[in-house]
Amino acid sequence: MSAALATCLCQLLNEQFTNQLFPEEYEDEEAIEDSIGTSLFVIFRNLCQTPEEDPSRQQILQLLGDMHQRQPRLGYHLLYFLKANKICEDNMTHYKDFCKSLDGKDLAGCLLSDLQLCQEDDVHLFCYLIPDIYCQFASIAVGNPELLNLIVSCVDGVQLQELVCHVMQGNLVMFRKDSFLSVLNASLEWETFEQYCLWTLISAHTIPVDYILPILPKLEFPQHAEPLTSLLLILKQNCPSEESLSCVLRRDGRSADPFALSILRYWSQEHEDKLAELVTMQLTRQTTTPRKQRLRDKQQGKSGPGVVQILYHLEQLRKTLKSTSCE
Question: What stretches in the chain show pLDDT beneath 50?
C-alpha cells in the first residue's frame, strides 16, 4: 500500500521536485515561507506535528522512505523545509528519524548523498543549508573532507565570503583538531581554486599553527604550490617558534623551492632577536646531543634539521640579505 501510494505521489509531485525550490530573494522571509507552501511540504509538516508516540508517525516515515527510493531529491527538500520552517522545535531530529527509516543507509551516508544531489541541482540552496548542517550534524560534518570538497568545488566569491562571515560571527565551525591533518592531506588532490577556498576558510578560523605544521614535510615544490603559499602567509602572521623553525629548516634548501628562504628572510627582518635565539638553540642541540640519541630520534621521526642543513639555509639567507643591502 505504502509503495503504491509513494509511486503515485512522486508522479503527481514531479514538477515540485524539478522546479526551482530556493527563491532568488532568499533573505525575504515571506519568499522563504511561500517556497514551502506547496503540497509536497504538507507531508513534511504532518511529520513535524505528529508526536513520536503516535503510531501514524511511523507510517509517515515509511511513506517518505518509499518516496525517497523513487525520488532522491526528497531528502534535501526535507532538509530545506526543516531549516525554513520556524514552527518545528529541534527540527533536524525529524531528518534523523527519516534516515533511520531508510534501508541500507546510515545517517552520514544519507546526509552526504542528499547534500551532493542538492549541490548538483542548486548551489545557492546548498550554501544556504551549510551553516545548519555543521551545527546540527557536527559529529558528521565538522572536519569531513568529502563535505568540504563539495563546498569548495562549487562556491563562488560571494558564497565563500558568506561562509567566512558565518565563521567569524561564530555561527559556523568547520574543522576540529583530530581530523584537521586528514583534511589537509585529502585537499592535496583538489583543484587549485578548491584548495585556495579551503585555505581561506582555514584562515577565517582561529587554527593554531601547530595544527598545520605537520603537513609541511609532505609538501613538495612545485606540485603543492597552493598549500605552500597559504602556509607561508600563515607563518608570516606568526612569530617564529622552536617547532615552526625546525619544520622550515628541515626543508631542502638546495632545491628551487623558495619557501624556507622567504620565511627566514621575513623573520630576520621582523623578529631578528627571536630568530637568532631559536637558530642558536637548534645548532646547540645538534652539536651537544649524543650521536646515539640523534639516531634514535631520527628513527622515531623526531629529529630536527642537521647542522649542515641549518648552515646551508643560513648561508642562503646571508647572501640574500647582502644582495638586498647592496641595492
Answer: none
